[in-house]
Write a structure and sequence with these properties.
The complex is a heterodimer of chains A (279) and B (279). Chain A is built from twelve helices and no strands. With 279 residues, chain A is mainly alpha-helical. Chain A folds into two domains: 52 residues, no CATH class; 203 residues, MetI-like (MetI-like fold). The longest helix of chain A has 36 residues. Chain B has 279 residues and is α/β, with parallel strands linked by helices. In chain B, strand 7, helix 5 and strand 8 form a beta-alpha-beta unit. Classes of the chains: A mainly alpha (279), B alpha/beta (279). Bound molecules: adenosine-5'-triphosphate and magnesium ion (MG). Adenosine-5'-triphosphate binds next to strand 2 and helix 1 of chain B.
């Protein structure tokens, strides 16, 4: 707690000086808040559903409401349908991410290390980054033989920038004396890369990957509106066409939950692998 | 392990494409096993000269020879230590110390050499600790062990103790001098701190600034360097202070930040980084 906090944290006050207990209380408290937040979200959904149902103009969409949607979600989970539509999407995101990492990390290192390269690429990269990945859709469709290929390409295009920029920025922040010392101790270029640079910027790379995964997950759904007949985006489109709004809402829940879990996994990886000290 | 012979011939160096002359015509010789200090006011080119001698920086003109061979790149045979320990925080103490051996294909010596080095700097119990858990003085000891592990013939020190408190500084000064003498390593020490020079070296090269050049070479003959209260110590110290003051006065030009000379502040003996008065 910073010294500017005038109001004492109730968890701190209740726990007195026992750090173990303080920690447990803090965890319980943040869990409580998380549950409260979820309850509020659910309530908003319920209110929305109620409003939709009672409005004659929108009553056809009543299945959006939590009750039918969650019931349908339960069925989709037990029948394996949920799994069936998720796996292809995860595969596409994984492939797109692998490509984005394979390009973003090395290019980011080069750009972060060499000033000339940084200056040459700065404007083109900023320019390309600002183009919505979905604008490449027509080109992707022409360039790739399969719909799957086009989707993976769009995901990779969306995901590469956060990784590239985060890697480059991380490298620029590295203490130059780390390179000097390593050079002095006889480091070869591959030592420099694997023993010094990559560990030094691992946190930046992972942060970039975390951001990229968020973007990739967002781009995935509209990208799957393309020709494919599998995946979460396809399911949404399909549910709309068949007017199954409970299935549509259930799919939205699945997308949100998986997105949350992916981000959580990244966060855990970052705090596990990080050598940075909080204090 | 033995010390190497170091010769510097007609070194000139300019920064910013020749617009700023940092060093002009430096000729210098250091005998094997000798301890030499480079002293002079801030900005006179001490660090530049040290970087050039160690091969970390290519001079604009002139040559450096170590044991008769031209120095053109850094090497673990001569190691530089900086003001900041620059340890790698993702490695343990032992891994940091082992780095020079690992880089130079001497991994088979790590098991015996690393404990030996840690013993030398009195940190045997810290081998598996994270370097971020160590105090500043302990970190600088680890950096010393890391520098010594590849058995260097010359140790270059760039104000290595100036960030430490007086007590830690004193004990590290004695340790480095003892270790260098025991192992016969040639020592080149850059310092602002005249008492440090008197304690640690046999010869002090006093540099004048704008451009950096040798103003005077002051021999420091002391029987007993551990007793700071002998008349010989006081004499050596004031002899060096006089040479320093003389060089600083001559080197002064009107600059953006006019540093006070000893003379300008009269007899009041202050201790700032710009004016290291005799203590
Ligand atoms: N990378 C650089 N680019 C341009 N000028 C530089 C650079 N490094 C040093 N200089 C200039 O060269 C001169 C000598 O610098 P140097 O760092 O060698 O001095 P120093 O004696 O080590 O000073 P200090 O005691 O403050 O460390 C200074 O005037 C400095 O401004
Ligand atoms: Mg310096």
């Amino acid at each position: 707690m910073s010294s500017t906090d005038i109001i004492a944290d109730p968890a701190d006050m209740a726990a007195g000086s026992d750090p173990d207990r303080t920690g447990r209380l803090k965890a319980a408290r943040s869990l409580g808040f998380a549950i409260l937040g979820m309850a509020l979200l659910l309530a908003a959904w319920w209110v929305g559903g109620y409003a939709v149902q009672n409005n004659p103009a929108t009553t056809a969409f009543a299945d959006f409401a939590p009750e039918p949607a969650l019931t349908r979600l339960g069925e989709m989970l037990s029948s394996g349908e949920a799994m069936q539509m998720t796996v292809p999407s995860l595969q596409r995101v994984l492939q797109g991410m692998v490509i984005a990492i394979a390009i973003g990390v090395p290019v980011g290192i080069l750009v972060g290390r060499f000033q000339v390269l940084r200056e040459v690429t700065n404007i083109p990269f900023q320019f390309l980054r600002m183009i919505s990945p979905l604008s490449w859709m027509p080109i992707a469709v022409m360039a790739f033989a399969t719909w799957d290929g086009a989707i993976v390409f769009l995901i990779a295009v969306a995901a590469v920038w956060p990784i590239l920029f985060s890697t480059a920025a991380g490298l620029r922040r590295v203490d130059p004396s780390w390179f000097k010392v390593a050079r002095n101790l006889g480091a070869r270029p591959w030592h420099m890369l694997f023993v010094i640079i990559l560990p030094a910027i691992s946190q930046d790379i992972l942060t970039g990957i975390r951001l990229a995964l968020g973007v990739a997950w967002i781009v995935l759904v509209p990208a799957e509106y393309l020709g494919v007949t599998s995946g979460l985006g396809y399911s949404i489109n399909d549910a709309r066409d068949t007017l199954e709004y409970d299935r549509l809402a259930a799919t939205v829940v699945i997308i949100g939950v998986i997105g949350f879990l992916l981000d959580f996994a990244c966060q855990q990886a970052i705090s596990k692998l990080s050598w940075h000290r909080e204090d | 392990m033995k010390g190497a012979h170091l010769a510097v011939e007609k070194i000139c160096h300019t920064y910013r494409r020749g617009r700023q002359q940092a060093l002009s015509d430096i000729d210098l010789e250091v005998k094997p096993g000798e301890a030499l200090a480079l002293v002079g006011r801030s900005g006179c080119g001490k660090s530049t000269l040290l970087h050039i001698m160690s091969g970390l920086l290519a001079p604009t003109s002139g040559k450096v020879f170590i044991d008769g061979a031209r120095v053109e790149a850094p090497s673990p045979r001569w190691v530089v230590m900086f003001q900041q320990p620059s340890l790698y925080p993702w490695m343990t103490v032992a891994q940091n110390v082992a780095l020079g051996l690992r880089f130079t294909g001497r991994a088979n010596e790590i098991a015996s050499r690393v404990p030996e080095m840690l013993k030398l700097v009195e940190l045997s119990d810290y081998a598996n600790r994270n370097v971020q858990d160590l105090s500043g003085g302990q970190q600088q000891r680890v950096a010393l062990a890391r520098s010594l592990a590849p058995s260097p013939e010359i140790l270059f020190l760039d104000e290595p103790f100036s960030a430490l408190d007086a007590f830690t500084r004193g004990s590290l000064q004695r340790d480095v001098r003892r270790i260098a003498k025991d192992l016969g390593i040639t020592l080149v020490l850059v310092t602002h701190d005249l008492p440090e020079a008197v304690t640690m070296v046999e010869r002090a090269v006093v540099l004048a600034a704008n451009p950096g050049r040798i103003s005077e070479i002051v021999p420091i003959d002391l029987e007993n360097r551990d007793d700071l209260r002998t008349p010989e110590y006081a004499k050596a110290r004031s002899r060096l202070a006089a040479a320093y003051e003389n060089a600083a006065g001559r080197g002064l030009r009107p600059t953006a930040e006019p540093a006070p000379t000893l003379r300008s502040i009269g007899d009041r003996q202050t201790q700032t980084s710009a004016v290291p008065a005799a203590r």
